[in-house]
Amino acid sequence: MDIATIVQILESTLRLATPLLFVCLAGLFSERAGIFDIGLEGKLLVSAFFSAAFAYYTGSAWLGLLAGILSSVVFGLIHGVASITFRGNQLISGVAINFLAAGMTVVVAQSLFHQGGRTPPLEGAARFQKIDLPFADALHDVPVIGQIYGQILNQHSILVYLGLAAVPLTWWVLYRSRFGLRLRAVGENPAAVDTAGVSVVRLRYAAVIITGVLCGIGGAYLSTSLAAGFVKDMSAGRGYIALAALIFSKWRPWQGLGAVLLFGALEAIANRFPNVDLGIITLPNQVMTALPYILTVVILAGFVGKAIPPRAGGEPYVKER
Amino acid sequence: MVADVTGGAAADAAPAIELRGISKAFGPVQANKDINIRVRKGTIHGIIGENGAGKSTLMSILYGFYKADSGDILIDGKPTQITDSLAAIRAGIGMVFQHFKLVENFTVLENVILGAEGGALLTPSKAKARRLLTQLAADYELHVEPDALIEDLSVGHQQRVEILKALYREANILILDEPTGVLTPAEADHLFRILRGLKEQGKTIILITHKLREIMDVTDEVSVMRRGEMVATVTTAETSPTELAELMVGRKVLLEVHKTPAQPGDVVLAGRGLRVVDKHGIERLRGIDIDIRAGEILGVAGVAGNGQSVLLELLAGMIPGTGTLTMNGEALDLSLKRDNARTRREDSIAHVHEDRHRCGLILDFMAWENIAFGYHHVPEYQKNALLMDNHAILEDAKGKIDRFDVRPPNPMLTAESFSGGNQQKIVLAREIERNPDLLLVGQPTRGVDIGAIEFIHKRLIELRDQGKAILLVSVELDEILSLSDRIVVMFDGRIMGERDPEKTDARELGLLMAGVTDDSVTGDAA
Predict the structure, then answer these.
(1) To the nearest whole angstrom, how far is the Cα of A41 from the nearest Cα of chain B?
(2) What is the pLDDT of residues B187-230, one digit of tens each?
(3) DSSP states of A238-300 as a string?
(4) Which domains does chain A possess?
């Protein structure tokens, strides 16, 4: 394997990890506040559709992004109403959201565009274009730095950089702001927050809204940046992979970045080498595609150690005595 | 005697807290009934009462968790609406709950500032809080490491964090709900030093407890609650543990129980040196010797939490302990490596747990299923090697429901849909009809209506007259006095003495329950 191939794989790792990163951070906000969210997949999908559809009609990727975020926030609020206000089961609500998203996107797409559940291909300003980082050209020929900065990090859509910036921002909010302190507390012991005179309900709604926004950006990236339009079921389990990355990272932002880069790299390798020749046998494409999932099971079962979720996670808060 | 200070003329300053006519009902249960209380500024005011007397409900109203159905709350003489915790905090009330409200994997500092950060950014807030915390810790002997994680702290230190939280919010009134329940004696003493220090600084403290010693040690005034009502407020210096115990337990109209003198037979169950240390390392049972004979009811009296429940659970094979225990001459295993609740049943020990909702029934299951629990493996309930014979169980349940007069007599209703008294009859039917040699029964008539109480008492006497042994634990002194053939009194994990129900009275038992012994009442009993 030569340097060029490695650079190519790393470059595509970054692209493929970006939607996972947004969704992983999205899940982090929700679950840190004590709301388990298996509906990340559904929010990702619904945003991917609405972003592509609005980008197509308006010709603006930015308006598409806005529509995607809005749709995802609406879905997040459905989950919020079910699990915060009505104290429903968070798993069931999340699964329902996934089904709703999978069905609705196709039906609406078909009735609007008549292309078998797709949106028409997006062109020009309806897609997020790749942007050049400053001095990328100048540094192109410098060894190592040139390859990292000029080739791996350069020439991505603005959303990729936004995702990378979201990691330190999330860390800062979580550990350095009043909101973050309360958010973490409400996921661990909502009674402590409540008796301190802070509204558990308001905090948790804030968390699901942030989750909706981040999922929305992830979805918009999928359909208006990574791909050029929406196709049926295009989230393809990324919501679940991101959830795995979240557990893998033990609900921490920097570790979350590491986890999604790992999963992104696996996908990139699978794309680059569809068939791996091991001499005796040739591993078919499916094995490589399945690798992230297999690895998730192996890692979660054996290597992460005990992943302790936020203690109040999954449980609706009911005032006692 | 009982000095009524609530309506006293000494109305010098406005009381820190005054409650007027507070009532609160949960469905048909009147948890608080027309409560009036005045807590003077700068005093430690005790509120004492049995479990379920309504103390915690009252405090939850004061901290905005519940809304009272009627009545007024006055803070410093001003009528105050306490709609939620925030309102309570603003009114200067700080609450230390029995179960701490701390975030376990946060530091002390983070827990203290939570909800009172003073700014959107944590770094400056923490710096400010750290200075204040150090100051408070020094002022009140409340030393804790600000950067320690809560989960690494002892229970006593966690409690200090709770107190610090209240002080950090500038609370002038501090309410502590059963603060010593989880503390070692040394920790409890330290807590009381802290409370006295707080009082000297002008803070008002309300101490909720059912422990008489604490009340006598630390309070200035004490209010007694019983069955949702405030029955008396007295000056601590002018009262005695005996008087308080009597007030707590009450002397309601004696239910007449007709029984003939017992004809005790051989010792059925014999325990020697029974000890239990709980998971916090606190000794709950401190070496008890106990003998129960066939054909007698041994009553165990005591204020709740003095080891009676632990004794029951130990004998029933629910918790491990040390010492020796024999049943009909055969040794039982107290470590529970070999024995458990099921083998105890096979050894002919039946157990009616004092908390029927937690350990006696599955409320969502039907009556006939509940009647089979614990005995679901007996041969007559089996159809073959694999399947249970539901029909046989149902028929059996119908018979039991009939004989125990469970109303409505429908085995298909969920346990939840029966009244407390009928639920208890279901449990009793299950345990008694197995014909055990020994029946362990805790609080048989708690939350049970008068009619069912009479029925249950009658069945217990009948069982005794059949030559069975019964160990009866109850906080109702009347029940103990009217049913028992012998009475032992427990205090602080020990047996304080044994009395003949014919030759004692509530006053003498109250003294023993308060842990007071003189030469005539000391001595190894049971």
Answers:
(1) 30
(2) 888 999 999 999 999 999 999 987 787 888 899 999 999 888 89
(3) HHHHHHHHHHHTTS-HHHHHHHHHHHHHHHHHHHH-SSEE-SS-EE-HHHHHHHHHHHHHHII
(4) 3-303 (1.10.3470)
